[in-house]
Amino acid sequence: MERYVQRKVKRGREFFYFRVVRNGNEQRFPLPHPFDSDYRAAYNSAHRVVFGTIPGEFESKTSIARMVRDHRDSERFRKLPKASTTLRNLACDLMLERWGEFEASAIKPVHVQALYDSLADRPATANRRLDDISAVFGWGKPRGFVDTNPCTGIERVQSDVSYEPWPEEKLQLLIDQGKREIVKVALVAAYTGQRREDVLRKLTDKAIKDSVWYLEQGKTRTSVPVPLHPVVLAILDMERAARRKASIIDPGRPLLTNSRGNPWTPSGFGASWRTELIRLKLRPHRVENLPEGAFRATLHGLRHTNATNIANAVARNAEIFGGIARVQAMLGHLSESMSKHYARRAEVEHLNHETLLLLPEIGNRPGWIGNQSEN
């Protein structure tokens, strides 16, 4: 929410106020809901009563403060899902705090990188803020605020979180009970082994030929031809049917869409993904409340699921299935080190299963073992 706006909930209803406390004295004025058409006039009126001016009355029309305020008043912002609106507001507040008095065009990648690095101890938060800040600059670019998006090319923090492959029962729960638009993304990620940004933004008809997705990965810039599994092809056919029904013709438009039929934004998907995992009890509301050693459900973990499944098959017969080169080719790893990680893990597991067959019977097995009636 904007500065000085206070939200209260009473008996299930939302109430908004313009509230300022100065020198121990409170001034408070009721406001319409921020999405109502008369909200801006009411906010400006309260601001003038308290401060003698309305926001931006004497500011540049191309400042960060003006861009943020115009973005918040825009139709695009109003159409954001509730969870995405919360994240976008946090990013907007951060922009105002750090750069509010500057021209939007004065913000360069070095300034964005400095802001991003200040959040480096919380990689997930840093990435969410960057995605939303980039979206604001992206909105402002065709409206004359900036010529280029300064968020392009920012070096992201590498999280130290271990992305585990999904246990079969957890993945099946998501598939069986998850919302359709979330399950589609999860299945495409699991069957292709590609990263979230690539799945959401680069899976387009323009990039697909003869059931092969020709992808330049966003993280490594590696060109990877990704054959599409029949399940993925069926999902994409569903999306194409919905697109035809909506009379949309755009081969460069991302195929995977949200519940409104619009291409996913990174922040929008992140918020929806988190909400769905909580609903399915695949994660707690706060990730720090996850018990130590418990499985941590992440979309990136489905990439590891894909790699692990390939590596397990390879381990059975490397000569037939192609060894670590198969993992490396499918996932687009630039080096063999990550591919070897999956292959080595699978080889050890497979070898240990064979070793188990070499163990002789140890003593005489007690008769009660396997007798359920004695439990």
Précis, in short:
This protein has 375 residues and is mainly alpha-helical. It has helices at residues 39-51, 64-72, 75-78, 82-99, 109-117, 123-140, 168-177, 180-192, 196-201, 230-245, 266-279, 300-316, 318-321, 324-331, 336-356, and strands at 5-10, 13-22, 25-31, 208-209, 212-216, 223-227. It folds into four domains: 1-58, no CATH class; 59-157, Tyrosine recombinase, N-terminal domain (DNA polymerase, domain 1, Orthogonal Bundle), CATH 1.10.150; 170-289, hpI Integrase, Chain A, CATH 1.10.443.10; 300-356.
How much of the sequence lies in strands comes to: 5-15%
- Note the total helix count: 15
| CATH evolutionary superfamily of the largest domain | Intergrase catalytic core
Count of DSSP E strands? 6
Placed side by side, the strands forming the largest sheet appear as 1-2-3
**Distance between the ends:** 59 Å
CATH topology of the largest domain: hpI Integrase, Chain A
CATH architecture call of the largest domain: Orthogonal Bundle
Shape: globular
